[in-house]
Design goal:
Largest interface: A-B, 26 and 19 residues
Distance between the termini of chain A: 41 Å
Number of helices of chain A: 11
Structural class of chain A: alpha/beta
CATH architecture of the largest domain in chain B: Orthogonal Bundle
CATH topology of the largest domain in chain B: Arc Repressor Mutant, subunit A
CATH superfamily of the largest domain in chain B: Winged helix-like DNA-binding domain superfamily/Winged helix DNA-binding domain
Radius of gyration of chain A: 21 Å
Number of domains of chain B: 2
Oligomer: heterodimer
Helix content of chain B: 55-70%
Strand content of chain B: 5-15%
Shape of chain A: elongated
CATH class of the largest domain in chain A: Alpha Beta
Strand order of the largest sheet of chain B: 1-2
Strand order of the largest sheet of chain A: 5-6-7-3-8-9
Number of helices of chain B: 5
Number of strands of chain A: 13
Radius of gyration of chain B: 19 Å
Distance between the termini of chain B: 35 Å
CATH architecture of the largest domain in chain A: 3-Layer(aba) Sandwich
Number of strands of chain B: 2
Helix content of chain A: 25-40%
Largest sheet of chain B: 2 strands, antiparallel
């Protein structure tokens, strides 16, 4: 099994007068690792809960592996949505893991115990009495050991300290190569998790504003520095995300289009061209004048 | 390990080339599998594979079906030639431009380089 694909069409969802999703068209290929990025309240959790059939959209279509997942046990048994320290039964860690083994067809008990040991989880402790970091670690263990063809991890790493986050990344990749599946990870640790993603989705106020390969995005975010006038002339017709002025020098950040040969143009104009880290690009795209 | 500005696959290709140039990887050596590489450096396996495939396309690595990837015979000489070709435009021209900007005569630069060569020959 190498993962389930996902298709949504014009997906909308509101809570009262708050629009959580505003016409989301999404297409995820099976077997890739996706980063789902967005600010708080951008609709990430709502989107994932609809894909996992935890709730229904107000309108629009959802297909997971070609089928509507809602109240469809054959499909939902292949979908896992793990949310930050939530949804965990009230029992000892050992019993929680044992319970999931009966619930999830692809569950790997040995692997779950291996992970629990690596994260240093106390097997006999009641899940409710775990520390925040331990709860997050338990969520990670569950997320990986279910081995679901569509695995969605919603901010599971939030409570983990840095060594535990590295451990999680290591284990996730090692298991993914052995058992390829579709994995969607939402996280605020963009700089740290960026290298894990094959493709990146950015939600902003309920709309999908970016879907690109992670490497493609790294190439699209560009900064241009030089004399203010020259930079202004250079910027005409380009998608400017932000600008900074220091004396007579100006630095603008651009969201370039693939194939625009900015490097050559900048060289000709005598301007300095730099690239933008993924996290900076994310910040620019989801704040300020571009995020309306 | 990787900067988050340049596409990772390009950084992987550059790193492998450096390993071949400095002899860490010899011609005929097997290179790490893309999956090993991805897990070790905590990067996406598809991205790692793209970096490796770029080197296959350039003839620096070759695939043995079912076995893995190996460094091509003659890869080092080829990479050296590539680097030498770019040496003057990438390193020397910018240095000359900087020297001009801050008023260092090129004669001084030449004298400095000759000094380095003389010290080297005495070692």
């Amino acid at each position: 099994m190498s993962g389930l694909g996902v298709e949504t069409g014009a997906l909308t969802k509101s809570y009262g007068d708050v629009t959580a999703l505003d016409g989301v068209d999404l297409s995820l290929e099976p077997g890739k690792i996706y980063g789902l990025l967005g600010r708080n309240g951008s609709g990430k959790s709502t989107l994932m809960s609809i894909l996992a059939a935890f709730q229904r959209p107000d309108s629009g279509t959802v297909r997971v592996g070609g089928h509507d997942p809602y109240e469809n046990g054959d499909v939902t048994s292949q979908i896992a949505l793990i949310r930050e320290s939530g949804d965990i039964p009230q029992a000892s860690v050992r019993r929680v893991l044992g319970y999931l083994a009966t619930l999830r067809p692809a569950w790997d008990t040995d692997y779950a115990h291996h992970l629990a040991e690596r994260f240093g989880l106390p097997m006999r402790r009641h899940a409710q009495r775990l520390s925040r970091g331990q709860k997050a670690a338990l969520a990670c263990v569950i997320g990986l050991a279910t081995r679901c063809p569509l695995t969605m991890l919603d901010e599971v790493t939030l409570g983990l300290d840095a060594p535990a986050r590295y451990l999680f990344q290591e284990e996730l990749l090692a298991d993914y190569v052995e058992h390829p599946r579709t994995i969607v990870i939402s996280t605020h640790h963009i700089a740290e998790f960026g290298d894990l993603f094959e493709e990146v989705l950015i939600l902003d106020r309920g709309r999908l504003i970016v879907h690109d390969t992670a490497d493609g995005l790294r190439e699209r975010g560009v900064s241009v520095t030089g004399p203010a006038e020259t930079v202004d002339r250079f910027a005409v017709g380009l998608h400017v995300l932000g600008e900074q002025i220091l004396g007579g020098t100006k630095r603008i950040t651009l969201y370039s289009h693939p194939g625009q040969d900015l490097e050559r143009q900048a060289r000709v104009a005598g301007l300095e061209l730099g690239s933008l880290p993924l996290q900076d690009l994310f910040v620019h795209l989801t704040t300020g004048k571009d995020a309306q | 390990m990787f900067d988050d500005r340049t596409p990772i696959y390009q950084q992987i290709a550059a790193r492998l080339k450096q390993d071949i140039l400095d002899g860490t990887l010899a011609e005929g050596d097997q290179v790490m599998s893309t999956n090993q590489f991805a897990t070790y450096y905590r990067i996406n396996p598809a991205t790692a594979a793209k970096g490796f495939h770029q080197l296959v396309d350039e003839g620096v690595l070759y695939k043995k079906r079912g076995l893995g990837m190996y460094v091509t015979d003659g890869a080092r000489a080829k990479l050296l030639a590539e680097r030498r070709e770019r040496f003057f435009s990438d390193m020397v021209d910018p240095m000359a431009a900087e020297a001009g900007l801050i008023g260092v005569p090129l004669a001084d630069v030449v004298a400095h380089l000759e000094g380095i060569e003389e010290r080297r020959s005495r070692m």
